[in-house]
């Protein structure tokens, strides 16, 4: 019994010491589950670059302004090996062991949806860098906020463009990676196409990890589509574009998401990139002025290039975007209190280099129009919306 | 015509699968090691071909044997200095060792080459053989042909050279081979080196066809595994036939069940094969 009382006293002392340490904190602790290894490591690396740039800039400026103090940003990463169950464990560890104040999401819709349940249970606001599927946000959670607009903001303007430029086009073929985000995106394209009177003559899914797409593309070719839409990630879309050319798949418009927005995709497919359309939540041509640590999109791009030697793509930009949104919410709240910060996040109205960010009732950004892009003469051009377009939409494939 | 094109697609990818699997089969058959490192070695061969093409403009199909030769030396050294120490240990130990080496190589490549996807972009593009309603990508034909030449050379080496017979002898009965004067340690090292040669060559052949990235290694390893089980462990003709069989089955699986289930048919047939013929199509213990 004596021992038990002693143990309890020792435990209380340790807890008290912990509280003292917590009260005297001089940093904002943010947890970020990252896919550093495994299939998503390219995306994980990009995301980390975005986080790091933001952290570097904030800390160089003295830190996040919380009331009358400035707190440094302390980012905690753990690798979840591109495995969603591990992402959940990492989120739990960040909350219970690292005692983070806030969370950034894992990469992609699937892992974000899974990890958001952990954040919700613990009441930790989580800013999602890379989730755009409504299915992630319709769970009634109060702690999840995503900086991407939903997938229909890609499919609607693209369907409009194809309809306007190719009035005779009727037949649409859709090939989707059987994964939460690419499939949700494909479903949005199907809806947008049908809404405009297109016939969806082919809609098939391919398994995650598919090495060869010849059979699917042979069937797609047989459907004689005018407009082809394929969803997936860079490696899938490099192979799909190449094999479509190998199999002489025709068509007047070819939309691939997400891939062509990345320079590595363009380099990998070479001339086959011509006239491929895509969409993206951010592109270095964006010209937003902002109230964040970067000051404007152009300045963000400049700093990114100086640090990493290349232009940022949307994943890299989203890594910094979640940072600036959280920072502005904390600074407005003047506190690290999660309830106050959550309330500021809900209010929205953040002027960021990524675009103006506010969230809908379910927590997904609904405040900007992502650009529609097309590869023309080896360069990425914005073809919609008209206000920021750098070129006009071209039809046909090379 | 659709069926014919699907068959051609299957054969075209089947040739690549055969290249992927042969080295894995040899190492498994002779050394009794499931070489988890195999997929990463294929990726490394891809990177060698990528840089050889980028800096010296060497065509990857011609570079393949050279990529294999460079990696052969590394493979012999790796086996002799590292893996040989655990050859007499239980199966699980060698599996763990190659698993660890695989993590090391994958992450080294991530650090060195980054995770960005790259691809050899041939200029002019190899194009396609257009046979009316059937089209066949030329690069796959070239890769398959070079792969089959290398595989045939390996088969001839095993069949007709003294060293090849030593490898087969060690595989059949290590102790008896040692009694007859075969240097078992050295034989293991060279056999592993030959497996690495085939992996490196395959990587170079694939570099113009599939994106290259350290994260692609697991996909190649799983294909090699399935092909070896279909074709028969340690059998070189088995790996070739297994490769073509898997290519065609996957292709028709995608046609009949939808692309989403391309692998379903292949795995159902694999399970059936394991039930009725566990040694694979051409597997016969002790023969190459």
TrEMBL record, chain A:
Transmembrane segments: none annotated. Keywords: Amino-acid transport, Signal, Transport. It comes from the Bacteria. The keyword Signal applies. Residues 1-21 form the signal peptide. Residues 28-360 form the Leucine-binding protein domain. SUPFAM superfamilies: Periplasmic binding protein-like I. InterPro entries: BCAA_transport, Leu-bd, Peripla_BP_I. The keyword tRNA processing does not apply. Belongs to the leucine-binding protein family. This is Amino acid ABC transporter substrate-binding protein. It comes from Camelimonas fluminis.
UniProtKB/TrEMBL annotation, chain B:
The keyword DNA repair does not apply. Pfam families: BPD_transp_2 (PF02653). Keywords: Amino-acid transport, Cell membrane, Membrane, Transmembrane, Transmembrane helix, Transport. CDD domains: TM_PBP1_LivH_like (cd06582). Its main location: membrane. It is found in: Cell membrane. It comes from the Bacteria. The chain crosses the membrane at residues 6-29, 36-56, 62-83, 90-113, 141-161, 182-212, 224-249, 261-280. The keyword Ligase does not apply. It is a multi-pass membrane protein. Belongs to the binding-protein-dependent transport system permease family. LivHM subfamily. This is Branched-chain amino acid ABC transporter permease.
């Amino acid at each position: 019994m004596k021992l038990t009382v002693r143990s309890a006293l020792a435990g209380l002392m340790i807890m008290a010491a912990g509280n003292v340490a917590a009260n005297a904190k001089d940093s904002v602790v943010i947890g970020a589950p990252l896919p550093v290894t495994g299939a998503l490591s390219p995306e994980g690396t990009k995301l980390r670059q975005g986080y790091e740039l933001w952290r570097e800039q904030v800390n160089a400026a003295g830190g996040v302004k919380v009331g009358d103090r400035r707190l440094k940003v302390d980012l905690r990463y753990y690798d979840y090996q591109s495995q969603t169950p591990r992402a959940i464990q990492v989120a739990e560890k960040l909350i219970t062991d690292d005692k983070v104040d806030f969370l950034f999401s894992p990469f992609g819709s699937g892992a974000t949806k899974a990890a958001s349940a952990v954040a919700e249970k613990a009441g930790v606001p989580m800013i999602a860098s890379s989730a755009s599927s409504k299915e992630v946000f319709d769970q009634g959670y109060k702690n999840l906020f995503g900086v991407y607009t939903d997938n229909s903001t890609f499919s609607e303007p693209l369907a409009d463009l194809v309809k306007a430029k190719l009035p005779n086009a009727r037949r649409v073929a859709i090939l989707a990676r059987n994964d939460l985000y690419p499939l949700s995106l494909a479903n949005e394209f199907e809806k947008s196409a049908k809404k405009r009177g297109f016939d969806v003559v082919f809609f098939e899914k391919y398994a995650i990890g598919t090495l060869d797409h010849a059979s699917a593309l042979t069937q797609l070719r047989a459907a004689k589509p005018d407009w082809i839409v394929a969803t997936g990630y860079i490696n899938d879309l490099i192979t799909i574009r190449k094999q479509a050319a190998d199999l002489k798949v025709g068509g007047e418009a070819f939309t691939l998401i997400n891939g062509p927005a990345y320079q590595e995709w363009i380099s990998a497919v070479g001339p086959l990139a011509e006239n491929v359309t895509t969409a993206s939540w951010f592109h270095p041509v964006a010209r937003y002025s902002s109230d964040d640590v970067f000051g404007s999109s152009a300045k963000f791009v400049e700093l990114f290039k100086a640090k990493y030697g290349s232009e940022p793509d949307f994943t890299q930009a989203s890594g910094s975007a979640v940072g600036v949104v959280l920072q502005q919410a904390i600074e407005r709240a003047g506190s690290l209190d999660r309830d106050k910060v959550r309330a500021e996040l809900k209010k929205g109205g953040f002027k960021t280099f990524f675009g103006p960010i506010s969230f809908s009732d379910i927590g997904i950004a609904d405040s900007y129009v992502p650009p529609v892009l097309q590869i023309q003469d080896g360069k990425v051009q914005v073809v919609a919306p008209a206000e920021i377009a750098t070129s006009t939409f071209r039809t046909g494939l090379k | 015509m659709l069926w014919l094109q699907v068959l051609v697609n299957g054969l075209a990818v089947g040739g690549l699968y055969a290249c992927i699997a042969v080295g894995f089969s040899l190492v498994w058959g002779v050394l009794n090691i499931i070489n988890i490192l195999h997929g990463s070695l294929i990726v490394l061969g891809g990177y060698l071909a990528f840089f050889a093409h980028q800096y010296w403009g060497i065509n990857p199909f011609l570079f393949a044997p050279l990529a294999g030769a460079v990696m052969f030396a590394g493979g012999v050294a790796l086996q002799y200095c590292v893996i040989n120490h655990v050859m007499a240990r239980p199966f699980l130990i060698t599996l763990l060792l190659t698993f660890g080496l695989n993590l090391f190589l994958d992450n080294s490549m991530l650090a060195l080459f980054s995770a960005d996807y790259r691809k050899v972009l041939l200029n002019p593009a190899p194009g396609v053989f257009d046979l009316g309603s059937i089209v066949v990508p030329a690069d796959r034909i070239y890769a398959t042909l070079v792969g089959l030449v290398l595989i045939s050379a390996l088969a001839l080496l095993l069949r007709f050279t003294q060293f090849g017979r030593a490898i087969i002898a060690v595989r059949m009965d290590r102790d008896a081979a040692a009694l007859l004067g075969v240097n078992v340690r050295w034989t293991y090292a060279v056999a592993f080196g030959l497996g690495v040669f085939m992996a490196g060559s395959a990587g170079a052949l694939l570099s113009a066809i599939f994106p290259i990235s350290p994260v692609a290694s697991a996909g190649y390893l799983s294909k090699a595994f399935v092909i070896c089980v279909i074709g028969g462990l340690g059998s070189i003709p088995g790996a070739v036939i297994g490769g073509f069989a898997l290519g065609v089955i996957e292709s028709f699986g995608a046609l009949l069940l939808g692309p989403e289930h391309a692998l379903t048919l292949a795995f159902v047939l694999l399970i059936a094969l394991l039930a009725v013929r566990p040694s694979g199509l051409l597997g016969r213990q002790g023969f190459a």
